[in-house]
Design a protein that fits this description.
Layout: H1 6-17, H2 20-33, H3 37-48, E1 51-52, H4 55-83, H5 93-119, E2 127-128, H6 135-142, H7 150-164
Antiparallel strand pairs: 1-2
Helix pairs in contact: 1-3, 1-7, 3-6, 3-7, 4-5
Length: about 160
């Protein structure tokens, strides 16, 4: 398996998220079902390469990221959204909005770093074999989401090929 690192993951996720259909669906899943976009993107990339994991390992990833997201990322996102109410009242609105967005993106990077660190932690190993417990289908199942996401896996496989090829 190609060793994933923060920079590579950020690039692949950004390129995958740049597709309008990916962004639209990820935001829909985030807003309606409280799914984490970083988990969706990274799990899609891994599942597109037929990586499987033990359910307990995936649970650790999900819990670690969701805990960080609730404690940090969501707070910045909420601040950015609430700041919109001041658009007409503050001359510094654009500057502050951009700084909040920049901070939010840094927290998104931290979430991706957490995913990578937990996936590569010494307590667990990748299981590269025919799909048994694929990461994205497991994540959707734990959240009771029944969605057709095969189009996402195809885009993820294409993105993976661009980076590794």
């Amino acid at each position: 398996m190609q060793q994933l690192n923060e920079h590579l993951v950020w690039q692949m996720c950004g390129a995958l998220y740049a597709h309008n259909i990916v962004q639209t669906n990820c935001l829909l899943w985030q807003n309606q079902s409280q799914l984490n976009v970083n988990i969706i993107l990274i799990f899609a990339l891994l599942e597109s390469q037929q990586y499987t994991f033990q359910p307990a390992h995936l649970d650790q990833v999900i819990i670690a990221v969701e805990d960080f997201n609730q404690a940090h990322t969501q707070l910045i996102r909420q601040a950015r959204f609430s700041w919109r109410a001041h658009a007409d009242k503050n001359n510094s609105y654009i500057v502050i909005k951009e700084k909040l967005l920049s901070a939010e993106l840094e927290f998104e990077k931290q979430e991706q770093k957490i995913i990578i660190e937990v996936l590569y932690s010494g307590r667990h190993t990748f299981l590269n074999r025919p799909l048994k417990q694929s990461p994205l289908s497991y994540y959707f199942a734990t959240k009771s989401i029944t969605a057709d996401y095969h189009w996402l896996l195809e885009l993820a496989a294409t993105q993976w090929g661009k980076v590794s090829g």
